[in-house]
Write a structure and sequence with these properties.
Length: about 375
């Protein structure tokens, strides 16, 4: 029988700015799940990164189950009450609808669900990122499941030599495409390099996989908060689940993409490019320029519906270099102030004063009489 891992996350208020969750709020979410989840879920784990509270649940009810989604929704509601009483900043930030209506998707929280046939040993890693967007997973997920320089298992392990299938979403047009690697590698990269538009939603094994044919082995939250709310409500800080070992990336292959820092969009006011920094769970507080953007990783095994772990995977000296590199990159790019490419292009900024500035300046704008300037403008795409 299939088992489902549901990871649902939301920002329901933080202290003092978008810095860190408030413990009594986390406790309220935990208490709600403990007291109301017994008949629905076989185990759960509550965690957090930055200002985002994360609920990992195990159950037999399948993905998109209304009762599971409602349990998480109500837990976040219970936490929001505590956040409001404490006067927390952004209390209930990601709960965009008043009443639950059957599926938590499109209501604000981020959702990643894996419906699996558990193996004898079922190890997996939950990644949590704050101050960035779902496309921040494109690069590491590609590396884990598509790049033999990151994952030598693709070359030397006969059980994964056939490659993997990637489900990519065009989040602007609501379309998806399945790409098969290694055959479609260049086409996949052509899409997912545009990480604000095309995002990897899931990875599947192929039908020819010798150990685990046609199984979902990775999933990322792709919820677009700003689309749902129609206005700035904070960027959609993502989370993901990756199954590992025996025909899948080894634990170390699933961590290797984070050994060097890379640039992601988000950071201050959701409007800047900045380096992602792998951190242990006790270092997940967003400070410098509301960041730098961070990723934490929790290693679990699942047996008979019970979770064992987590192991705090980046809480290790092996990632000190990536942290130092991220801090150096932060120092470098921060000097650029509001100039691109530190600041995001207009269309990707989570909020901007530009329309109001343009309106104010409209009477002062004059036509350029210089003919050269006009013909140059025609050369634009
Ligand atoms: P051990 O020899 O420590 O079990 O490790 C095997 C392995 O495949 C590591 O990636
Ligand atoms: P969050 O998306 O984590 O709430 O952060 C928003 C923000 O504006 C940070 O400066
Ligand atoms: Mg916030
Ligand atoms: Mg956040
Ligand atoms: Mg955010």
């Amino acid at each position: 029988m299939k088992t489902t891992i549901s990871h649902i996350k939301a920002d329901i208020g933080s202290l003092p700015g978008h810095t860190v969750v408030y413990e009594p709020v986390v406790n309220a979410v935990d208490k709600y799940i403990k007291e109301n989840g017994e008949s629905l879920i076989s185990d759960y784990h509550i965690s957090h990164i930055g200002d985002d509270i994360q609920i990992t649940m195990v159950h037999k009810m399948g993905a998109d189950n209304p009762e599971i989604h409602e349990l998480a929704w109500n837990a976040f509601k219970a936490g929001t009450e505590v956040a409001k009483e404490a006067g927390l900043y952004g209390a209930g930030q990601d709960l965009l609808k008043d009443a639950f209506s059957g599926n938590i998707k499109g209501m604000g929280p981020g959702v990643a669900e894996l419906e699996i046939t558990p193996r004898k040993a079922e190890p997996f890693i939950v990644y949590m990122m704050d101050k960035t967007e779902p496309g921040a997973f494109n690069y590491p997920i590609y590396k884990m499941f598509g790049d033999p320089f990151n994952t030598p298992g693709l070359v030397i392990d006969p059980n994964m030599h056939m490659g993997f299938k990637f489900e990519v979403w065009d989040i602007y047009n609501g379309k998806k495409v399945i790409m098969s690697l290694p055959e479609d590698t260049y086409d996949l990269l052509a899409l997912i390099g545009s990480k604000g538009k095309y995002v990897i939603k899931r990875v599947f094994t192929k039908e020819t996989h010798s150990k685990l044919p046609d199984e979902n082995v990775a999933v990322i939250t792709t919820d677009k908060l700003s689309f749902i709310a129609g206005e700035y409500v904070g960027k959609d800080d993502p989370a993901g689940i990756v199954r590992i070992q025996s025909g899948l990336p080894a634990s170390g292959e699933a961590l290797e993409p984070f050994a060097n820092s890379y640039l992601v969009s988000g950071w201050m006011r959701g409007s800047f490019n900045g380096p992602i920094m792998p951190v242990g769970l006790n270092n997940s507080m967003m400070t410098r320029f509301d960041g730098p953007p961070r990723v934490a990783a929790m290693g679990f095994v699942l047996k008979d519906g019970k979770l064992h772990g987590p192991v705090d995977m980046f809480n290790d000296v092996a990632f000190d270099f990536a942290r130092t590199e991220a801090l150096q990159m932060a120092n470098y790019i921060r000097k650029m102030g509001v100039f691109e490419p530190h600041r995001l292009p207009d269309e990707d900024m989570e909020y901007t004063a530009l329309p109001r500035i343009l309106e104010k300046l409209a009477p002062r704008f004059k036509n350029i009489e210089d003919k050269g300037a006009k013909s140059e403008m025609k050369l634009e795409r």
